[in-house]
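Exercise 7b. Backbone tokens:
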């Protein structure tokens, strides 16, 4: 039986269907999860997709963090379930305190949409085992509130523990401290990043690259070998 990976839809989610397609292309079964339902339908992992949940009112991810489904996601993540937050999903993970730090508005105060070069810093998380440490990849980026910030102690801790998973290369698109594009929790089962790997899984659509597909094959491999 194949792995079942849940994709949560919040009001204002944009990339839930794209994420489901990426999961299917990787060989797993995507399972649609609704923000009002606490039931995770016995999935093996969860993805919080990109978008503008609740219109980014108050602060990006601040309202979604209190959705009923997040009670279950938080509980299961703390028990070891793999969770990936993409863009708005990353913002929700910081608001839910599953990942440290916060996301602020881009330093140039504009929405940005571009193909972004990243360097893989940690290839040992549940979502990155199909990459190599030091590998450079191109993943589409689109955000308004993508500037990752944290206090110096937290940043030093992330660096020392190898929890910076991705770093921007050549160009920092939003002013994120230390060029951080993605991080993990201490256990490595929870990962958040601003770029959109689900838009780089097929050569004929999206970015025209498949650099994002290993996110989804990584978790499948991790679950199958668990």
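Sequence design result:
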């Amino acid at each position: 039986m194949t792995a079942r990976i849940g994709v949560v839809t919040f009001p204002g989610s944009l990339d839930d269907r794209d994420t489901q397609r990426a999961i299917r292309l990787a060989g797993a079964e995507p399972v649609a999860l609704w923000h009002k339902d606490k039931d995770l339908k016995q999935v093996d992992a969860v993805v919080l997709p990109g978008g503008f949940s609740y219109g980014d009112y108050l602060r990006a991810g601040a309202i979604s963090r209190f959705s009923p489904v997040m009670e279950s996601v938080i509980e299961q993540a703390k028990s070891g379930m793999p969770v990936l937050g993409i863009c708005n999903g990353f913002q929700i993970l910081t608001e839910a305190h599953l990942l440290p730090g916060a996301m602020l508005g881009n330093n140039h105060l504009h929405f940005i949409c571009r193909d972004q070069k990243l360097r893989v810093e940690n290839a040992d998380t549940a979502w990155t085992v199909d990459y190599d440490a030091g590998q450079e990849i191109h993943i589409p980026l689109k955000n308004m509130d993508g500037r990752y910030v944290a206090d110096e102690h937290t940043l030093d801790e992330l660096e020392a523990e190898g929890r910076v998973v991705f770093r921007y290369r050549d160009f920092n698109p939003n002013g994120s401290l230390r060029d951080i594009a993605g991080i993990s929790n201490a256990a490595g089962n929870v990962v958040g990043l601003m770029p959109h790997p689900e838009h780089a899984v097929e050569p004929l659509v999206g970015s025209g690259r498949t650099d994002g597909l290993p996110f989804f094959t990584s978790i499948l491999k991790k679950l199958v070998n668990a």
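Instructor comment: The chain has a mean pLDDT of 95. The chain has one domain: 4-224.
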